[in-house]
Amino acid sequence: MSLPSLPLVAGITVLAISTGGAVTAAEADLVGRMGDGTSVTAAGAIGRDVLAQRGAQASRNAPRNGESSELTEESDPALVALAEAQAKRYEQKIAEMRRAAEAQAAKIKENKWVLPLASYSLTATFGQYGLWASYHTGLDFNGDSGDPIMAVANGTVTFAGYDGSYGNKTVVTLDDGTEIWFAHQTSIYVSVGEQVRGGEVIGTVGSTGNSTGSHLHVEVRPGGGGPVDPFQAFVEHGIVP
């Protein structure tokens, strides 16, 4: 399809002023030059968006003499430049969104919890009464003495040593401030200040402190405060003990 004639474009310019507000001198010149025969390859659909923004919507929606209302692949160089600039902004925004999504996915994968023992059975749950001074504050994973204990998530070792009834204990503080306590260990393999990753071996199962047999006692303390149910915490992080 040939481009609109100069008189038609002039009429559209007047219509745009009356219905859509003032048109700048540069815009009027841009619209006027649409009929001078100059042509280059347009930037497709983006070019049509730019034309709409320049008050040329009427020329597309009002076919003359049986002509199609669709734009041809020929257009003004200035419009092409505007279309290319807009397309570039769209591409940059999409790229930013993609990078943000990939970073979030990587963070979720990096901080996913894992179980502390490869082989175990649960022997005591949170809130039980009987063998403890008040109630059971953690989750007990039965295991053989010497079985490797793994950090459940990425964090920093903030305690590593003997702690009364807990025996040999390691505390790993996660990035969100949650403390994970590992008690009754035979051996401790990490030191305070050390960075550990989920699945990394930090010690071995034992029966130190107040313990009736070889097992791992795990506590979960959000923000370093009081203990919460470790079973529920594992479930919330995609793991069912």
Provide structural commentary.
This protein has helices at 6-20, 25-32, 44-53, 57-61, 77-110, 230-236; strands spanning 40-41, 74-75, 121-124, 139-142, 148-150, 155-162, 168-174, 179-185, 187-188, 195-196, 201-204, 215-221. By secondary structure, it is α+β, with helices and mostly antiparallel strands. It folds into 2 domains: 6-110, no CATH class; 121-236, Glucose Permease (Domain IIA) (Distorted Sandwich), CATH 2.70.70. It is elongated. Residues 1-47, 56-63 and 67-73 have low confidence and may be disordered.
Q: Sum up the overall morphology in one term.
A: elongated
Rounded to an integer, what's the Rg over CA atoms?
A: 35 Å
Helix count, per DSSP?
6
CATH fold assignment of the largest domain: Glucose Permease (Domain IIA)
Number of strands: 12
Across the major sheet, the strand order is: 3-4-12-8-7-6-10
Low-pLDDT regions? 1-47, 56-63, 67-73
**Beta-strand residue fraction:** 15-25%
| Intertermini distance | 69 Å
Helix content: 25-40%
CATH architecture tag of the largest domain? Distorted Sandwich
User: What would you call the structural class?
Assistant: alpha+beta
- What is the overall pLDDT average? 76
Question: How is the secondary structure organized here?
Answer:
Blueprint: H1 6-20, H2 25-32, E1 40-41, H3 44-53, H4 57-61, E2 74-75, H5 77-110, E3 121-124, E4 139-142, E5 148-150, E6 155-162, E7 168-174, E8 179-185, E9 187-188, E10 195-196, E11 201-204, E12 215-221, H6 230-236
Antiparallel strand pairs: 1-2, 3-4, 4-12, 5-11, 6-7, 6-10, 7-8, 8-12, 9-11
